[in-house]
């Protein structure tokens, strides 16, 4: 071969070479998949965040005048295009939250664009949020006390209303607190005394000294409760009396006048007059009510505080139960159990457990925890309640059983993650420890566990995220549509694991599908979803922060 | 592993008698050979006596009737090609092989006269009498200080004064004190590879072991770090009984007093390092230490 001949450079790539030899198409494929995945997740979160966060922003109140002379006042909550049909051209139409249920029989109404002859934003248009009956839109005409007119005209009425309303509202809340809380305490005292009598009867059988003492005690308690009730009655009567008679007359869009009692008004605002700061004030106040208050009107209004509390308490109790159990089980599987068919079978079973539908756990929780364990506890410790009221204490759904059920549900996640974390600890670490004369437990306790802890935390984070968002099993073991008594409160013994509770994920289902006024509840669904996602994210951020602290401490880079 | 040559082709300057048979070929064929042990080894006081020790991983025999004394306060090197059982032998001394499933053994070892494989022997107590350093530095995920005093901690030592003293002495003993004295409470994982290995040596000598087992302590280190660890082994000589596994012939000749040559699970020749490297009894040993095979 002539070495002087000019060599044509070998073509490194040709159009004929296989696609797989190029590489770039795979970059596009893999990168594209990732981009789609990110877009889906980001889109989902953004959608929920926007819909959820905008619910409480005070939208302007728009007055529509129709061709037939009717008028409507409300927030625009949707628009759509109606296609051409029956020879007519297509046109737009607007959904307006008129909040005029007692006048027109509907909360929402569609208005076709061709019918609307005039739109306006009346300066004094007021949105009123009521304790009962939902929203009301109108223009304040006068402030009344009984038959007497205290203030007339929108401006004066609004000024007087703004001055009087806070005091009225705080009296309403005080009366509510007495009714819900103070009277509840009395009821519980009464019940405890009554059950003490039953207990004495059950133990002594018939009439012993104990029974006599218990009966006497019950009489004393009843007397005390009567006295206290009278005081409370007087107090609530005073509060209600001071509020009674006050009312604001509103003129609805159609000219109808309605007097709304002042004590029934939660909040009122005039969005068309509000500055940006004023709107922000209303926005913050409504968020605060949402986060800190009890729900009203079949959960479609008011706050979700009991549900936040229930979700957090359940998730944390679940984590407290599942973490030690899962870790110990995984430790045994990885560090102590020999390698054999039994261990393999157990491991496969655990992995399969992770795939069992969650409602199955709910059924198990109800059947075993509530009806067997709970009934057993009732039989042993709460027999009087069972006998006297035919009312189970632990033998029904409750926070404890829900947490245990979810702990069971998330156990496989924790076990698998812990096992993987333990397997990732280099064997040289264990050998080094053994060579120093450490026992197996000392090695696990001082070397293996600290090193595996970040990985274990990851499993726990996954478990908590899964548990906090679970609905189906909870419906069977203790979550209720409405449970205002918190599972942790100021009455002895402070933690009430047997109580039923509310949960955000279930509330989403309840508000979205079980609400009588579903159109009005729809924004609430997104707000609650937004809140749930935020709470789970916060829990995860806290756990991740903890994990990174542990990681810094135990797993630095080698070399 | 390279197949052993039929016969060493050049038996130059074979130094005294050479065995008439080719032992390596015999071993490769599955035969048993008796080890050549120099008299000077037998003259030393042994701290550890390995007595006809056999070991199997499942059905595969890894050690064949090893009998060798390890002299007190001397450095003894185990050399031989990969897979010849050096590390297995070392790990058998502190019974780390117990952790491997399907290990069987016969024979015994004695540490200062106490039977290591006696069923009544408390393995944990036994391991406290030895220190071990591994191929890859394996500092524990804790501070430098806690690493060094680990053996004392697990023994329940709480006295700050005792721990501080042991920490300083051990780190000085491992020639690491000056480098880390200002950062004793920082993570040990932040040290360089060579420092980590010296830390492991400090950890191993903290409990005043009767035998120090070094399993190729320099194989993961760069030349400078290797030099420091070798200097350290030199310093330990005379104070500790050291049993070191190494692949590096120069290291064995530089650091050890005695050298044992192993091949396919058998002890082939065992004698003073100078003799093994200059005038071994067996041509096979010479072939290996001069780098002609293995």
Task: Provide a concise account of the structure shown.
Chain A has 559 residues and is α+β, with helices and mostly antiparallel strands. Chain A has helices spanning 24-54, 101-104, 154-204, 209-243, 276-292, 305-336, 341-353, 358-381, 383-389, 399-423, 427-435, 440-468, 472-477, 504-514, 518-554, and strands at residues 62-66, 71-82, 91-100, 106-112, 116-120, 126-130, 135-145, 148-152, 246-251, 257-261, 265-269, 295-296, 301-302. Chain B has 13 helices and eleven strands.
CATH homologous superfamily (4th level) name of the largest domain in chain A: MetI-like
Query: Can you summarize the main beta sheet of chain B?
Result: 7 strands, mixed
The tally of strands of chain B reads 11
Total of helices of chain B = 13
What is the overall silhouette of chain A? flat
Total of helices of chain A? 15
Q: Give the C-alpha Rg of chain A.
A: 33 Å
Our estimate of the beta-strand percent of chain A is 5-15%
Chain pair forming the biggest interface:
A-B, 27 and 34 residues
The percentage of residues in β strands of chain B lies in 15-25%
Please describe the structure with a list of short key phrases separated by commas or semicolons:
A: alpha+beta, MetI-like fold, 3 domains, six-stranded antiparallel β-sheet, five-stranded antiparallel β-sheet, B: 294 residues, alpha/beta, Rossmann fold, seven-stranded mixed β-sheet, globular, disordered N terminus
What can you see in these coordinates?
The complex is a heterodimer of chains A (559) and B (294). With 559 residues, chain A is of the alpha+beta class. Chain A folds into 3 domains: 62-121; 148-288; 305-554, MetI-like (MetI-like fold, Orthogonal Bundle). Chain A has 15 helices and 13 strands. Chain A has helices at residues 24-54, 101-104, 154-204, 209-243, 276-292, 305-336, 341-353, 358-381, 383-389, 399-423, 427-435, 440-468, 472-477, 504-514, 518-554; strands spanning 62-66, 71-82, 91-100, 106-112, 116-120, 126-130, 135-145, 148-152, 246-251, 257-261, 265-269, 295-296, 301-302. In chain A, β2 (71-82) and β3 (91-100) form a beta hairpin. In chain B, α10 (223-236) links the parallel β8 (211-215) and β9. In chain B, the strands form 2 sheets. Chain B has a 7-stranded mixed sheet with strand order 1-11-10-4-9-8-7, sandwiched between helices. In chain B, strands 3-2-5-6 form a 4-stranded antiparallel sheet, with helices on one face. The longest helix of chain B has 14 residues, at 160-173. Chain B is built from 13 helices and 11 strands. Chain B is of the alpha/beta class and 294 residues long. Classes of the chains: A alpha+beta (559), B alpha/beta (294). The interface between A and B is medium-sized, with 27 and 34 residues.
